Amino acid sequence: GAVVSQHPSWVICKSGTSVKIECRSLDFQATTMFWYRQFPKQSLMLMATSNEGSKATYEQGVEKDKFLINHASLTLSTLTVTSAHPEDSSFYICLGDSGHEQYFGPGTRLTVT
Amino acid sequence: EDQVTQSPEALRLQEGESSSLNCSYTVSGLRGLFWYRQDPGKGPEFLFTLYSAGEEKEKERLKATLTKKESFLHITAPKPEDSATYLCAVQADEGSYIPTFGRGTSLIVHP
Q1: How far is CA B43 from the centre of its chain?
Q2: Are A93 and A36 spatial neighbours (Cβ–Cβ below 8 Å)?
Q3: Which chain A residue lies closest to B92 (C-alpha atoms)?
Q4: Residue-wise burial string across A79-92, b where 16 or more C-beta atoms lie within 10 A, e elsewhere
Q5: pLDDT digits (tens, 9 = 90+) for A18-74
Q6: Contact A97, A31 (CB under 8 A)
Q7: Terminus-to-terminus CA distance in chain A, angstroms?
Q8: B100: closest chain A residue by CA
Q9: Quick check: B46 and A104 CB within 8 A?
Q10: Secondary structure letter of residue B93 according to DSSP
């Protein structure tokens, strides 16, 4: 059945480096990809919404130059955390939406040291 | 503004003790209401989508129902492996289709 894969599942990086997270939709076409961040024991916080082939729409307080989102195709969306800092450490999750179905990726645990 | 409120925040049950989780919502027009299960350190797992009042869906020990104001997730004879956080989300039928999530209900089922 339809699923969203997310890679990497966890990553540790040094402060100042950049990290790319990929989400791929399998067996369905995600026309929209929502990117969320989740801190421990807290609910999902929407960071941005991206539609295939167009620029992402960022939520208030989310720096678009720091969190670069690319949604180049109906099956692939990427989130790049640029110049990461320890406060960016979090659990990042994508949600693919085809208009009829929605599926979460398994999440990426980012730790910035 | 779309709103989703889940109750209770936390629920402890004994194995076999049936109960219900509540998701109250306000939305201009409902495109869909979603239930997810989330285990610690993992992404939410899709359970159900409900589209209109009166609709019901079942999966194993879980049954989701929907009215115009709320949804219930009924858990019949739960087992310890049902322990997780259950999330509810609504999606409006206009605008950007951004799902609005509740804070979730943390369920612990004791053996």
Answers
A1: 15
A2: yes
A3: A99
A4: bebeebeeebbbbb
A5: 999 999 998 888 889 999 999 887 888 999 999 888 889 999 999 999 999 998 888
A6: yes
A7: 37
A8: A46
A9: yes
A10: S
